[in-house]
Amino acid sequence: MAFTPPTAEDLALYLGLAEIQGDRADLLIAQAVALAESVVKPLPDQATAVVLSVAGRAYVNPQQVTYETIGPQSVQRPAGSGGLYLTKADKAALKSLAGRGGAFTVDPTPADADPSPTWPVDVSYPGEPYEPGWGY
């Protein structure tokens, strides 16, 4: 099944907004999808959460304002809390959803390898199954 980008209504629900600017939301979602595809292509079906996070961050704080004062009210936001970008966690989540990353093993054994021993086996010692040097 192919990835289906979220809609402007999905972004409004994600952000908890009753109303949303549809054209602006659609543009941000399209740009968020493009950014996500720069990390993983094709996007997995579950990438909707990352796309909504990226688009929501840009929708709520497009100018990346970190401190704002209006009259007696002031708001301080964490640095980097706005704009359209992928965080390190977003990139890691996309790679994880696509099945990339994590631990893996590489078997260097050739497919036609023979499991019999390759060292010289001394058949002249007495007392099977013991080998010399084991104190018998």
Specify the helix fraction band: 25-40%
Strand content: 5-15%
* Biggest sheet overview: 2 strands, antiparallel
Topology pattern, helix = H, strand = E: HHHEEH
Distance between the termini: 67 Å
Strands in their spatial order, largest beta sheet: 1-2
Number of strands: 2
**Radius of gyration (Å):** 29 Å
- In DSSP terms, counting alpha (H) and pi (I) runs of 4 or more, how many helices? 4
Average pLDDT taken over every residue: 81
Q: What general outline do the C-alpha atoms trace?
A: elongated
How would you characterize this protein structure?
The chain has a two-stranded antiparallel ribbon with strand order 1-2. The radius of gyration is 29 Å and the shape is elongated. By secondary structure, it is mainly α. Helices cover 35% and strands 6% of the residues. The protein has helices spanning 8-15, 22-37, 48-60, 88-97, and strands at residues 67-70, 73-76. It has 4 helices and 2 strands; from the N terminus they run αααββα.
Overview features:
136 residues, elongated, mainly alpha, 35% helix, two-stranded antiparallel ribbon
Would you kindly provide a brief summary of this structure?
The chain is mainly alpha-helical and 136 residues long. Helices cover 35% and strands 6% of the residues. The chain is built from four helices and two strands, in the order αααββα.
